[in-house]
Amino acid sequence: MTTTTATRTDLTMLIARATRAMAIAGLFDQNGHISVRDGDVAYINDRRSSRRTIGPDHVAIVRIADGQALHGEPPSETALHLACYRARPDVGSAAHFHPLFATAFATAGRPLVAAYCAGAVFGHEVPVFDDPDLIRRDDQGREVASVLGEHRAALLRGHGVVVVGDDVPTCVTLSVWLEESARRLAHTVPLGQPKAFSADEIRRLTASLWQPKVIEKTWTDTLERARAAGAFDDLPGA
Ligand SMILES: [Zn+2]
Fold first, then answer.
1. Residue 80 CA to ligand 1 centre (angstroms)
2. How far apart are alpha carbons 107 and 158 in whole angstroms?
3. DSSP 138-150
4. Cα(104) to centroid of ligand 1, in Å?
5. What would the pLDDT profile of 96-114 be if each residue is shown by its tens digit?
6. What gap in Å lies between CA 160 and CA 116, rounded to an integer?
7. Where does the chain have alpha helices with state H?
8. What is the 136 CA–ligand 1 centroid distance (Å)?
9. DSSP letter, residue 111
10. How far is the CA of 182 from the centre of ligand 1 (A)?
11. CB atoms within 10 A of CB 87
12. Which residues pair with 161 in a beta bridge?
């Protein structure tokens, strides 16, 4: 697939804004990356740039089939993103990061169950990839994609999370919700055993929440919080 200049400009700006917004949301620290699929390539924030200040010129472009960098310097764990795209034709955007609360559950060996509404869209329990090593090779990426299966997220024990969605707004929304679910659960555990949702409750809550208007609201709010913090001040048109 040939990427037009207009599309390339749009997608590099989209990734720059999403990366900064994820940083302002407290999900990205010095690590963390988000990518978007465009035909046979993926756009991803590069290896060296601060997630808080990355500009569109520092968004890398990688060929999905073989990981060849076509522009820029992709992050070291790009293999994780590429494996998700290869395994899941439905995935249009992927994120990998090391959020405080969601990571703590896998680190403690405690299941991140759906017991707060934002967690319902991830199903009864978020699957866990049980190896703390960084995902820098294709074979590791395939193993994570296998654990992810058809889920919207997986935890990487002692490491972080991977989240996948149809597009960047969906992936950012799921990233916010995954950490929100974990944060609420972490505050619940000291009070008592969380009351995990039943299959019927998960089904009804997912039907209520998993709607374009709810995703758009979360995406807009995440962007506006970043804008209000001045994170887009130097991005033309953002
Ligand atoms: Zn990582």
1. 9
2. 5
3. HHHHHHHHHHHTT
4. 14
5. 999 999 999 999 989 999 9
6. 20
7. 5-24, 78-87, 100-108, 138-148, 168-188, 199-209, 212-228
8. 9
9. -
10. 18
11. 17
12. 97, 155
pLDDT tens, position by position, 113-145: 999 999 999 999 999 999 998 989 999 999 999
CA 155 / ligand 1 centre spacing (Å): 11
Ligand 1 centroid to Cα of residue 77, in Å, is: 7
Domains parsed from the chain with CATH numbers = 5-228 (3.40.225.10)
How many residues are there in the chain?
A: 238
Check: CB of residue 17 under 8 Å from CB of residue 81.
no
Q: Residue type for 64, please? A: I
CA–CA gap between residue 118 and residue 126 (Å, rounded): 13
Question: How many whole angstroms from 192 Cα to the centroid of ligand 1?
Answer: 31
pLDDT tier at 194 (50, 70, 90 boundaries)?
Answer: very high
Query: Which of 2, 27, 15 is CA-nearest to residue 179?
Result: 27
Encoding tokens for residue 238? 């953002």
Query: How far does the centroid of ligand 1 lie from the alpha carbon of residue 109, in Å?
Result: 18
C-alpha 96 – ligand 1 centre gap (Å): 6
| C-alpha of residue 228 to centroid of ligand 1, in Å | 28
* Closest to 33 (Cα-Cα) out of 113, 98, 118, 109: 98
How remote is the C-alpha of 25 from its chain's centroid? 12
Take residue 99 and report the two structure tokens written for it: 């959020």
Whether pTM exceeds 0.90: yes
Ligand 1 centroid, distance to 28 Cα (angstroms): 11
